[in-house]
Amino acid sequence: MKTTIIKLAGTIADRKKIKQAARVIRKGGLVAFPTETVYGLGANAVDAQAVKKIFKAKGRPSDNPLIVHVANKKDFSRLAAEVTPAAKKLISNFCPGPLTLVLKKSKMISSSVSAGLDTVAIRMPSHPVALKLIKESKVPIAAPSANLSGKPSPTDAKHVIEDLNGKIDVIIDAGKTKIGVESTVVDMTTNPPTLLRPGGITREALRRVVDKIAMRFGRGGQIAKSPGMKYRHYAPNAKLILIEGRPTQVIRKIKKRVCMYRLRGKRVGIMTIRRDHTYDADAVILVGTTPTAVARNIFHALREFDKRRVDIVLAEGIAERGMGLAVMNRLRKAATTLVRKA
Ligand code: TXA
Ligand code: MG
């Protein structure tokens, strides 16, 4: 298959070009498009055949449900059987934006979208190109992140081309995404609501709107309720070792491991948050010095280590506050080894 690449000037939603992509969605094709979090791989959510193509192109397990993207707040109540009062509050505070709500599904949602569950995940993105594409398609768009299953999510059209060129109809290129980690997923069918995936809307921000929120995203022995959270994810080809603890400890441990792995003939990469670091390795990437900057760059950095052909990546842990919670969740999922505080 030949993939058409539609290039846009940044986030400007050129009507003619987006109409061209919308026609592909309406005909049952696959279109990768930018959102404020990561690029999505979209298909008509109410066309079961089109939805099946998403799973095939990504190599995604069929038991992992998709997020349905809408361009209007009213669509939450069309696609869900019920929008609870707490859900309404979250919608009015955070939509459009990087928040996905899991609600009881309506009859409009086929089992290929929901992977057999009786719920549906719905999100209204804030990216002008995503909104325009959904509006011009005149259908809700089912879209997972536009990467091959298991790879880091795409935060630039270049990443989508690496993973899916030749496998999908269209890639809309609007440059880099702003947030860099995926949306926050909250299950509204439980009381209190349950945070299933930390993301672009922080836990602290959610707590300002709903006072209680349970956490269940497969950390520290908890069982993941979101089917997607049980797979190894976001992973570079290299082995990723996440090192946590006090700064002096972390630095010392990383330096010790660099020596050890190099003696074994390995190429070593380091992902750091310190501008003034004194590391010496085969690839040292400064991923950002604030949690927000780290979130924006993390998936690109993971792909970059593979390009630099390192065997092992040593990553510094960050505090789990604000965007730090989502960053650490992604690093833990990508890691083969966790080195905790001594
Ligand atoms: O920011 C994002 O959310 C991006 C952009 C493209 O919108 N999308 C995205 O989709 O990250 P995906 O498929 O890569 O991740 C969706 C997550 C998965 O962990 C999936 O298991 C979970 O949401 N999910 C989807 N439907 C669900 C449901 N009904 N119940 C529980 N979890 C669900
Ligand atoms: Mg994904």
Describe the structure.
- By secondary structure, the chain is an alpha/beta fold.
- The protein has two domains: 4-215, DHBP synthase (Alpha-Beta Complex); 239-339, Threonylcarbamoyl-AMP synthase, C-terminal domain (Rossmann fold).
- Helix content is 32%, strand content 19%.
- The protein has eleven helices and 16 strands.
- The site of threonylcarbamoyladenylate has 30 residues, from strand 5, strand 6 and strand 10.
The gist of it:
The chain is α/β, with parallel strands linked by helices and 342 residues long. Helices cover 32% and strands 19% of the residues. The protein folds into two domains: 212 residues, DHBP synthase (Alpha-Beta Complex); 101 residues, 3-Layer(aba) Sandwich (Rossmann fold), CATH 3.40.50.
Query: Tell me, what's the shape?
Result: globular
By DSSP (H or I, 4+ residues per run), the number of helices equals: 11
CATH architecture of the largest domain: Alpha-Beta Complex
The major sheet is characterized as:
11 strands, mixed
Helix content: 25-40%
Number of domains: 2
Gyration radius over CA: 20 Å
Taking all residues together, what is the mean pLDDT?
94
Q: What small molecules accompany the polymer chains?
A: threonylcarbamoyladenylate, magnesium ion
What do we call the CATH topology of the largest domain? DHBP synthase
Q: Which structural class do the helices and strands define?
A: alpha/beta
Total beta-strand segments: 16
User: Which regions are unreliable across 5 or more consecutive residues at pLDDT < 50?
Assistant: 219-224
What order do the SSEs take from the amino end to the carboxyl end, as H and E?
Answer: EHEEHEHHEHEHEHEEEHEEHEEHEHE
